[in-house]
Amino acid sequence: MIDLKSGNHSLVENFELMKGLLATYGPDSFQVLRDRAFRNFSEFGIPTTKDEEFKYLSLRALEEGHFKPAYGATIDRFQVEQTIVGQVDAITVTFVNGEHAPELSSAHILPAGVFIGSIKDGLAVYEDKIVQHIGEIASLKNKLGTSNDERFVHLNTAYLSEGAFIYIPEGVSLERPIHLLFLTSANHGPLVSHPRTLIVLEENSDAKVLETYLGLDGVYFTNAVTEVSVGPNAILEHTKFQQEQADSVHIANISVNQAENSIYTSNNINFGGKIARNDVNVWLDGEHTETWLNGTSVGLGHQAIDNHTRIDHAKPNCNSFEVYKAILGGHAIGVFNGKIFVYEDAQKTDAKQTNQALLLSRTATINTKPQLEIFADDVKCTHGATVGQLREESVFYLQSRGIPKAEAEALLVYAFAAEVLLKITIPGVREILEKVLFEKLSTTQELPEFVET
Question: Is residue 128 part of a domain?
Answer without folding.
Answer: yes
